Amino acid sequence: MKKLFCLLMSILLITSLLPPISLAQEQSDADVELWNVVKPLDTTVTFLNTGAHPDDERSDLLAYLSRGLGVKTASLIANRGEGGQNAIGNELGNALGIIRSNEMIEAAKVNGVKAYHLSETTSDAIYDFGFSKSPDETLEKWGEDVVYERLIKFIRTYQPDIVMPSFENVVSQHGHHRLMAILSERAFKDAADPNVFPEQLKNGLKPWQIKKFYLPVNAATAATTSIEIGDLDPIYGMSYPQLGEASRYLHKSQGMGNDIPVAPRKSHLKLIHSAVETGSTDLFAGVPYDFHAWADIIPAANVSAKLDTLQNELEGIIKLYPDREAILPKSQKALGDVQKLITSTKSAKLDAGIKNDLLHKLELKVEQLQQVSFVASDLAVDMEIGSYVLTQGEQTQVKVKISNEGKQKIQHIEAALLTSENWKHEGETQVKHLKPGESKTVTFNVTVPSDAEYYQPYGDAVIKAQLTFKENGVKTTSVIDLDNTVSVLPELSVTPDPVNITVNTANVQDEIPATVKVKNYAKGAKKATVSLNLPKGWTSKPATSEVTFTERYEEREVSFTLVPPKDISQGNFTIAAIAKTDGKSLNTTVQEIKYDHINDSYFMYPSNINGVAFELLKPDNLKVGYIDSGFDTIADSLLNAGFDITKITPEELKNGNLSQYDTIVAGIRSTLGRPDVLQNNTRLLEYVENGGHLVMQYVTSGDPWNRGAFTPPYPLTIGSPSIEWRVTDENAKVTVTKPEHPLFNYPNKIGDSDWDNWVQERALYFPSAWDTNYETFVSMADPGEAPFEGGILMANYGKGTFLYTNLVFYRQINAQVPGGYRIFTNLISYGSNN
């Protein structure tokens, strides 16, 4: 119900913005649930939109095709969006990918689209590794044998008539987008070639010829087909672009969705390849649109006539909308007719390719007619489970309540439970029949295997219900999901804090405080012994700690004091947090991901503290104020590394004594994340003018900056479009143009090794122009491109200095890259040295 609620709220949000006309009455009378399943009976066409990341889908066009025309439509997305930023929480990396994947699924439901991903696990090679300018780099990282094999497999499984990537392969595009355009176009030929990935054919798949391949273009002059998609749909009371935006609202972690009026809008497409004869500007020209069109190309007269009859039946069902009572017997009859037609088609003498295509279309109609029958039956299914969180070996109950909310008797009802392999369940399945207003609840006892696989965020649901009934001697089957995720979790979650430790070999800390939070997911009481598996030479006080629980979801926190050896060697180390219970050693952190617009999810990873030891010199008297934008964790990392650092609150920024700080650092995108930075622009410049050192990390060209919102001491312009103003190769050569400057000598002597082992990228949002008062210090470029000189800019202003850097120090410090720490320390220490 949560998902349905979010879907309806997204639609209502935009509907509320429409002008108060009579369409509101039309929408209130519409049986949207029934129309969503009836309309697809109108056509046999299938359409596939491919993209790289969640939110790449062409939402407005997909809404038009799916909701407006009934075309079976899918979005196939390569990765999970793990490399982006999070607008609703602090989840990043795989945890963010889980959020974005679920948002993609929920967004697609608004438009009647099915969402799929090529990435299969949280450790998948098809990973959002950050912005890439190059499809070659993307293919190298993802692996052609992985990404292309899965793409071909998906196309042979889904069997789309028309394929359209979301983006063209042009240099102004993201490398991930470009690669999906390239591979999708290659697949036009290769998916039909039995010599391409022949092992797929041994596993039951067949070659599939995509009929037409389109690319989206920006103007009608470049298009072969321009489709008006801005019309108002009388069922939904919204235009298709508005439906598209309603779906995009569910990409909340990316801040998607816009309020738009009803207005004409055309989708411009360019036909690149066609396997059918087409001289028309019609998107579907040459592609059989329905079974009448299929009847025209099938030489077998007995099959052809039956196809014409079937299409007449399907159109008759659509005409009966919104009469559920009248639709059910007609839908069941059509379902039986399709099943008979499948049998006769299999034995008919037809070209193998045509037979495969036709059987696919008929099987699709079986699926769609069962959906029509289930909705028209007015059977409501509610599922309850003893606990959505389970542990290995646990027993629980699942109750399935079936209610007849319609006006007709439904007969031969059976309810079954579908569970993962090796799960045990038992219970009554026969419901027999339900008269209008009657209901029955069936109960299943479920046992989780003692070796059950833990929750996989991209895996299939472990428990579903299956409902069948018969009408006119024809059986209809429907599978129903629970309202939320059923998850098998470790009995205890173990979460250490901090997760990163930095040991400064120049001044090794005497003690390092750490805590371990333990959460009980087991049913009932539980005891555990918590300890830390330490590197050689380390000790902890205490060595172990006992925790007890009386019920599920209870938490306990224990404290440790870590004592590192004074002669610690430079390098990386790991400290494992462990909870021992009932003979098991548990070393897993369960990160809960819970938001109202998606199902509950979890990301599990080893409960380790990741440490690094290196020499980090810093001024003893350096006092730093940090304006935390909420988009980075640099302040916390520097605090853990022993810096005297204070997070400046909005009140302090407005009225406090800023002169107490040698340096003030503004977090990334501070003008967006902290509106008070804009409001106190003058105070910050006065701080610099009076002798302070202000370090400003990057802003984007779209953030409030240098436009009367926030003004740096001298003009400085952020480059646009942003794709052209970044260095995405984390190993790109960096040249320090002024190696003798204090920035690279105090307090740490910066050398080539400090630029090693960087992650994801070097820099984002380079300045494109700056005043001559700014001094430049570094030069860097992606391979084959002209170098950027503005990665670190500094200018004297009054008695102080203003430094701007777009280098991604937040990524390096979060990844515990020693060079990231050392260079950033020098940049913020200039205030003390000056």
Please provide a written account of the structure:
This protein folds into five domains: 1-18 and 31-276, 3-Layer(aba) Sandwich (Rossmann fold); 291-376, Methane Monooxygenase Hydroxylase, Chain G, domain 1 (Up-down Bundle); 379-487, Immunoglobulin-like (Sandwich), CATH 2.60.40; 489-614, Immunoglobulin-like (Sandwich), CATH 2.60.40; 623-833, 3-Layer(aba) Sandwich (Rossmann fold). Helices cover 29% and strands 28% of the residues. It has 21 helices and 42 strands. It is globular and about 90 Å long.
Question: How is this fold's topology laid out?
Answer:
Blueprint: H1 2-15, H2 23-29, H3 32-38, E1 46-51, H4 59-69, E2 72-77, H5 94-110, E3 114-117, H6 135-142, H7 144-158, E4 162-165, H8 175-190, H9 199-202, E5 212-216, E6 225-228, E7 232-233, E8 238-239, H10 240-248, E9 266-274, H11 291-297, H12 301-320, H13 324-347, H14 352-377, E10 379-385, E11 389-390, E12 395-404, E13 410-419, E14 424-427, E15 430-434, E16 439-447, E17 463-471, E18 474-481, E19 487-488, E20 492-497, E21 500-504, E22 512-520, E23 526-533, E24 539-541, E25 544-549, E26 555-563, E27 571-581, E28 584-586, E29 588-593, E30 601-606, E31 608-614, E32 623-627, H15 634-640, E33 644-647, H16 650-655, E34 663-666, H17 670-673, H18 675-679, H19 681-689, E35 693-697, E36 716-718, E37 734-736, E38 767-770, E39 775-776, E40 778-780, E41 792-797, E42 800-805, H20 809-814, H21 818-833
Parallel strand pairs: 1-2, 1-4, 2-3, 4-5, 11-19, 21-31, 32-33, 32-34, 34-35, 35-42
Antiparallel strand pairs: 5-9, 6-9, 7-8, 10-12, 12-16, 13-15, 13-17, 14-16, 17-18, 20-22, 22-26, 23-25, 23-27, 24-26, 27-28, 27-31, 29-30, 36-38, 37-40, 39-41, 41-42
Helix pairs in contact: 1-5, 1-10, 3-14, 4-10, 5-10, 6-8, 7-8, 11-12, 12-13, 13-14
